From TrEMBL:
Its main location: membrane. InterPro entries: Membr_insert_effic_factor_YidD. Keywords: Cell membrane, Membrane. PANTHER family: MEMBRANE PROTEIN INSERTION EFFICIENCY FACTOR-RELATED (PTHR33383:SF1). Belongs to the UPF0161 family. The gene is yidD. It is found in: Cell membrane. It is a peripheral membrane protein. Pfam families: YidD. This is Putative membrane protein insertion efficiency factor. Could be involved in insertion of integral membrane proteins into the membrane.
Length: 91
């Protein structure tokens, strides 16, 4: 099942996503986040994390660096974001 979902996301990335202008506010993109979450956490938890990320991606959010956390969470990976910001000398 995990392989099928990853293939579907890759199909989206290759054939559907190029038809629209780039609008993702996060790095990595939501589709890449979904693939990593599926590989790291399995089908059920990875799918939940990917859907939560897509829901978080809206015009009212600032976006930024948000990698898949090692532990399951539907919330933004704030610790990784802060470490990244410190590594490039931002507040």
């Amino acid at each position: 099942m995990k392989t099928i979902l990853i293939l579907l996301v890759n199909f989206y990335k290759k054939f559907i996503s190029p038809l629209f202008p780039p609008t993702c506010k996060y790095y990595p993109s939501c589709s890449t986040y979904m693939i990593v979450a599926l590989r790291k956490h399995g089908v059920l938890l990875g799918l939940i994390m990917g859907i939560a990320r897509i829901i978080r991606c809206n015009p009212f959010i600032h976006g930024g660096y948000d990698p898949v956390p090692d532990k399951f969470s539907i919330y933004r990976n704030k610790r990784a974001r802060e470490q990244y910001r410190r590594s490039i000398n931002l507040k």
